[in-house]
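On clarity, I found the account of how folds are encoded harder to follow than it need be. Since the whole study asks how a given chain folds, the encoding of that fold should be made plain. For illustration, here is how one protein appears when written out as sequence plus structure tokens:

:::
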Amino acid sequence: MMLSSCAALGNQKMPYDAWRLGFIAPDYMEVWIETAQVVDVENYVFLGVGGGVAAMNYPDAFGSDVPKLFEGDPTGWPKHPSWGAGKYVRGSDLPKKIYVRWQSMVEPQTYEAYIEIPESTREMMRNSVEVFCRADGKVITDYREAIVIGLAPGGIAKTWVTGPCLKPIEVSRTQATVDPRGPYEGKSNGHYRPLTDISKAYVEKFGIPYESW
């Protein structure tokens, strides 16, 4: 695998202490992230910068019964994607490449993607923007300090860059490849994480809108 060395601290060249990496998925299209890793612009490698579930609006985390009416819509991506489920990548400079391997539980299928982060994206992350922030009620200096990756069935990985009070900007769309080893690098005898009853019922009724992402 490309990312195999231990993480090390580089010389940061960004105007904040850490940038954030988050993951989202379309409604009902449940995702389990097995691993996410980063190579920064100084060629340092950071392992274990993401894992677990990707953020979704539906199914509701507090709901357990299959609803009579499905309120979510997995078609396409939201105009203003959230920051997603994730964390700050500390000790890293801005990213050059992000590797992510995930289970698309509704198919089920295991994908891996190498997402290139171009210099134009890093430039947006470095540059400050004067913007009115509703949370503060005043004009502030803000940065696009977060990268959000949307993971969808068919192996689609879409990337945005965003900030606390700034609109997300779409920067890339990557087609992942199927990992022939299957889930957990072939260590689970082909067993995927279980899909919730709500998502299973949605897919059985409406199918998967592959062409919308």
